[in-house]
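REQUEST ID: PR-0412
SUBMITTED BY: lab tech R.K.
PRIORITY: routine
TASK: structure prediction, single protein chain
INPUT:
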Amino acid sequence: MNIEETALCMAELGHKTRLAVFRHLVQAGKTGLPVGELQKQLEIPASTLSHHISRLTRAGLVVQERNGTTLTCLPQYQVLQEMIDFLVDQCCSGEPCLDTPCDC
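STATUS: complete
OUTPUT:
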């Protein structure tokens, strides 16, 4: 992931509703959540939720899959991991914390 892609992801996650949606999806696991269930759990109007999911999808953080009439949102853990990796790529400028999990 490069700086532009990371900046886009972080910009989309910089909105409290989108961050809440993404965190909820991450907590739900790899199977994601149907849009209707996500709306019910977060108590967000359908049009508002649709807008925020669209923004997360454009950034690559969420993918939607349709199964019949059900539209499911799936968090993209690989994109999340790439963003984290980019942010800590040069952590501690060569100090020992690079050899172990960062406890900065």
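NOTES: The chain has one domain: 3-88.
REVIEWED BY: pending
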